[in-house]
Design goal:
The structure holds 2 protein chains of 2 kinds. Chain A is an alpha/beta fold. Chain A has helices spanning 79-86, 116-122, 137-147, 153-166, 170-173, 186-198, 216-229, 242-248, 271-276, 281-287; strands at residues 39-50, 53-59, 62-64, 68-72, 96-104, 107-108, 123-126, 204-208, 234-238, 251-257, 263-270. Chain A is 31% helix and 23% strand. The radius of gyration of chain A is 19 Å and the shape is globular. Chain B is an all-alpha fold. Chain B is globular and about 95 Å long. The chains are: A alpha/beta, B mainly alpha. The A-B interface holds A 87, 89, 92, 94, 116-121, 124-125, 127-129, 131-135, 143-144, 147-148, 180, 182-183, 193, 196-197, 200 and B 116, 182, 184-185, 187-195, 198, 202-203, 206-207, 318-319.
């Protein structure tokens, strides 16, 4: 279990970061090692409860900055629960609570005195189904900035244009910014939601199966978009699609439920390792399709 | 593997289903049922058309422009109208909507998002009970609450009584509409760091608005047809004319508040109240006028419903 296997035999992702990764946590006992990427989000013995039910237990994961981290695993293993605890969306579930810590830049986001609004501004989210607001395209993107007190229309216009450019949607909608966001196609709606998230200048973007409701062409666009966004943003994506995880991500976390039906982190490491040379038998079975 | 083998063995075994069995019987029952449901649907619509056409025939006799623009004349004199009742109905409806809608919508947001809290359960139970309270009881309540302490009947008391009648419907319909808005929409806003109240008003409410407005219109239509609560609160006033009150106020150089106070502080009439009183009178002309009042009232309710539906169609097609 040493961490010197930086040369995977099979290159699965098209854009591997140079000189990075040996950030591997083989099991909960091992320390996460980090060589060249900084840690953006870190969980420490995280457990999430819904009422008395333990949905996640002993999660220790370090999300590297400006990389794409994929979370894979069978249905019901707590991938989304983990993702949604990063920006405290689980607070919305009645009678849910967490144990352990989630640190954003080293600061526990569940600590007293932390403003959840600020956490969510810094950690944006894109959902499984596109969920544009029932407003115009412009208003959808301007919603966040307006919320944070930007009222000057010219500034708002700049932000909207910049965000739509970043989300690779500008050319398609620049002539119809006042049309309803709901009138766009599914793929466009999803990019609108990404633009909306980018407009509040987040540092991290969480994506909960962002392409599972989209057709292959739109999926490809979203994946290309993720590649261009990772130069500035830390991206965490939950996906059911292992090929997608292999294509887009730099790091992959594999999760499973244990005998108590609680989600656990089985293995976390560079994507190439997870897919070609997994350390854990369960991971191997899962990524080779023998299971799940 | 096991499923594949089992389906193989299934295929080779004898089949139990013969589609030809009882085919004619099923077809016949289907046709009978279809005819039966169609006939009963027609039967259910009979009262509606009967009422509408009957009221139209009986009521169109006095349906002249002056009936809408004049106050009642003394008995025995021809002509006159029910302007007082039309204005009173509009005033009472406006007041009751004003009193019922804001608290109703806020309460609906609370019960929709906190259904399991003690207050949420209590409000839900309370609205169920309140919607079952006979309207005349609410009239007596309005009498004890406002008329008795003030010492006189008033439009204000009538508006409050009708508002109490409307609140449960508004809470329940609004709550249902809010619940229909996908949770993901609300989460999308919250994930941007939007506080819950801004999310509710800027995202959830607009998304649910067409349904909520329909609920408003239906409860308004219902309240504007109520008689019983007004017997004890608005009482009736066949000299009520808002135009006159405003003109008189301007002549006296009264402030707007004083004029408004005068309008709200005196007894008013309403269409159902007038209808009720006219039918009690032993004069054929009044009874005939009552039919016309019924026609106007029905037209008003129909119009309100129509506006609500057209509005919904326009809203949904623009999105």
């Amino acid at each position: 279990m040493d961490s010197n296997q930086a040369k995977p035999s099979l290159e699965l992702t098209h854009e591997k970061p140079k000189g990075v990764p040996v950030l591997v946590s083989f099991s909960k006992h091992d320390q996460t090692e980090l060589q060249s990427a900084d840690i953006k989000i870190e969980t420490v013995n995280l457990a999430v409860f819904y009422g008395k039910f333990r949905a996640l237990s002993d999660i220790n994961i370090s999300i590297p900055e400006k990389r794409i981290t994929a979370i894979i695993g069978p249905s019901g293993c707590g991938k989304s629960t983990l993702l949604r605890s990063f920006n405290r969306m689980n607070d919305l579930v009645p009678r849910s609570h967490i144990e352990g810590e989630i640190r954003l830049d080293g600061e526990n986001i569940f600590a007293m005195g932390i403003d959840v609004v600020n956490v969510r501004r810094r950690i944006g989210m894109v959902f499984q189904r596109p969920n544009p607001f029932p407003m115009s395209i412009f208003e959808n993107v301007a919603y966040g900035p307006h919320l944070y007190g930007i009222r000057n229309h010219r500034v708002l216009q700049e932000i909207v244009e910049k965000s739509l450019h970043q989300a690779a949607l500008w050319d398609e909608v620049k002539d119809k910014l006042n049309n309803s966001g709901m009138a766009l196609s599914g793929g466009q709606q999803q990019r609108l939601c990404i633009a909306r998230a980018l407009a509040v200048e987040p540092e991290v973007i969480l994506m909960d199966e962002p392409a599972s409701a989209l057709d292959p062409v739109s999926t490809l666009k979203i994946e290309d978009l993720m590649q261009s966004l990772k130069t500035n943003y830390t991206i965490v994506i939950v996906t059911h699609n292992m090929q997608q995880a292999a294509r887009v991500s730099d790091f992959t976390a594999f999760m499973m439920i244990d005998s108590n039906r609680a989600g656990k982190m089985v293995e976390f490491g560079p994507t190439a390792h997870i897919f070609t040379n997994p350390k854990n038998k369960q991971t191997e079975d899962y990524v080779t399709g023998r299971f799940g | 593997m096991s499923t594949i083998t089992s389906s193989h063995s299934r295929r080779s075994a004898t089949t139990y289903i013969n589609p030809a069995n009882g085919y004619n019987r099923r077809k016949t029952i289907n046709v009978i049922m279809l005819v039966l449901t169609g006939l009963l649907t027609l039967l259910a619509l009979v009262p509606l058309f009967w009422i509408v056409s009957y009221i139209f025939i009986k009521g169109s006799q006095y349906l002249t422009p002056s009936f809408f623009t004049q106050l009642p004349r003394p008995l025995g004199m021809p002509g006159g109208g029910v302007l007082h009742a039309i204005e009173g109905t509009l005033l009472l409806t406006f007041l009751s909507a004003l009193f019922a809608i804001p608290p109703g919508v806020l309460a609906a947001f609370y019960t929709a998002y906190h259904p399991q809290t003690p207050l949420g359960i209590a409000v839900r139970f309370g609205t169920d009970v309140l919607s079952g309270v006979p309207s005349i009881v609410i009239g007596i309540f309005g009498y004890a609450l406002i008329v008795k302490p003030q010492g006189h009947y008033s439009a204000l008391a009538g508006g409050v009584a009708l508002a109490i009648l409307m609140v449960p419907t508004i809470i329940r319909t609004t709550e249902e509409m809010i619940k229909l808005v996908p949770q993901s929409l609300r989460e999308g806003a919250l994930a941007l760091g939007s506080p819950e109240w801004i999310t509710s008003f800027k995202v959830t409410l607009p998304a649910a608005l067409s349904g909520i407005i329909t609920g408003f219109m239906l409860s308004i239509a219902r309240a504007s047809g109520e008689t019983a609560p007004l017997l004890f609160t608005a009482l009736g006033n066949d000299r009520f004319e808002i135009g006159q009150l405003i003109r008189g106020g301007i002549q006296n150089k009264d402030s707007i508040l004083t004029i408004l106070g005068k309008i709200l502080d005196q007894p008013v009439d309403s269409l159902p109240l007038t209808l009720f009183k006219y039918t009690q009178q032993p004069y054929p002309e009044r009874v005939n006028q009552a039919w016309t009042v019924a026609l106007i009232l029905m037209g008003l309710v129909l119009l309100t419903n129509l506006i609500a539906r057209v509005w919904v169609i326009i809203r949904t097609s623009s999105n």
